[in-house]
Amino acid sequence: MTALEIYQSLLEFEHFLILGHECPDGDCLGSQLALASFLKRLDRSVKIYSAGPFFKPEIHNWESLFNRKLPMVEDIPPKSLMILLDCSTLDRTGLPIEEITLPLMIIDHHSSGSLQGEYSMVDAQSPSTTLLIQQIIEASGKKPNSEEANYIFFGFCTDTAFFKHLAENNLQALRSIARLAESGINPNSTYSRINGGKDLASQKLVARIIGRSNLYFFGKLIYSWEELKDHDELNLTIRDAGTVYQMLQSIQHCEIILLLKEMKDNQVSVSFRSSGDLDVGEIAHSLGGGGHAKASGCTLDGSIMEVRDLLLELFERYF
Ligand SMILES: [Mn+2]
After folding, report:
1. CATH number of the domain that 155 lies in?
2. CATH code, domain carrying 218
3. Are residues 145 and 226 in the same domain?
4. What pLDDT shows up at residue 112?
5. What is the mean pLDDT of the chain?
6. Cα(134) to centroid of ligand 1, in Å?
7. Are 85 and 215 in the same domain?
């Protein structure tokens, strides 16, 4: 659906439950916050939900704005719409959603995931979900207000690593950012917010992960991992995966980053990053996860070493 059709559909409802994926990032939460603000301007009632966790330093402060618990079915008023942002399937929310049957709207920029929902706007060309929210706001004839503009810009900067992953000649995105500038955005403070505010423990974790990393397939794949005990030993409150990716991605010849994180005994969360042609969204999807061509993830059963062996065998086919 076009942004205008989505806007018109929104007007048919009075109450909104806005959800995103678990392990949220700035784009997911920024989309939720910007859309919630816009709907409130339209005199609608809005609640935003997230399963968390809010480990990432740049989103740490937003935790209190989000509900962790979904409402009881009997407490949901008529004319309610559920909106899913920055992912395309309800299982990605990490919330017990099964009992709630509401009309569903999906707004996303990921390529994987079979589509659910009565209303959907999925554009894999968009660098962030927040830019899709901007399109919807602008389709109404309004401009994002300064609060919304900052949420939108924050999501864009998170997903493009501050313009770095923006595709060549993406005039549409750059024009969108120029229009946000009219509403008041602050690149300087946004950059500091995304890249600053770190504590020493999180940087010590970065050091451990970098120290463990190894190259495979003539240096095209770099692999490392994070153990449960790291969190206890370092007394970690926040995680800084962004710095890990940044450092590993800058290594010559590296195309794929494979980062494993021990979640509990015999369960490992896997993150993929690709700076080459390989679509890691498809790979994660084939393993029951999700994401897009350049960044994706999944959760697998097994020890870190078992999951590593399984994944290296899988990647051997591609290299
Ligand atoms: Mn996103």
Report:
1. 3.90.1640.10
2. 3.10.310.30
3. no
4. 59
5. 93
6. 14
7. no
pLDDT digits (tens, 9 = 90+) for 87-107: 988 888 999 988 888 999 999
Separation of CA 310 and ligand 1 centre (Å): 27
Q: Is the pTM of this model over 0.85?
A: no
Domain end marker among 194, 221, 242: 194
Centre of ligand 1 to C-alpha 24, Å, is 9
d(CA 171, CA 179): 12
Calculate how far, in angstroms, residue 26's C-alpha sits from the geometric centre of ligand 1: 8
Query: CA-CA-CA-CA torsion for 302, 244, 227, 198, nearest 10 degrees?
Result: -140
Distance 33 CA to ligand 1 centre (A): 14
Residue 174 CA from chain centroid, whole number: 20
**What residues make up the domain containing 276?**
200-316
218 CA to middle of ligand 1, Å?
31
Does residue 31 sit in the same domain as residue 175? yes
Two tokens, residue 287: 């393993």
Mean pLDDT per segment of 10 residues, for the chain of length 319 residues? 97 98 95 98 98 88 95 94 94 90 93 75 94 98 97 96 87 96 94 86 95 97 96 86 90 96 95 94 93 91 97 93
For residue 181, give every residue at least 6 positions away whose Cβ sits within 8 Å of its Cβ, in sequence order, or none: none
Task: Note whether 182 and 294 are same-domain residues.
Answer: no
Co-location of 125 and 260 in the same domain? no
- Sign (positive or negative) of CA dihedral 301, 50, 126, 116: positive
12-47 pLDDT per residue, tens: 999 999 999 999 999 999 999 999 999 999 999 999
The pLDDT tens digits for 154-170 are 999 999 989 988 888 89
Burial class (CB in 10 A: 0-12, 13-18, 19+), 276: middle
Residues 68 and 12 in one domain: yes
In this structure, the answer to whether residues 234 and 183 fall within a common structural domain is no
Ligand 1 centre distance from Cα of residue 255 (Å): 21
Place of tokens 């449960």: 228
Q: How many domains does the chain have?
A: 2
Tokens of 282: 């498809």
Ligand 1 centroid–CA 189 distance in Å is: 20
Residue 75 CA to ligand 1 centre (angstroms): 30
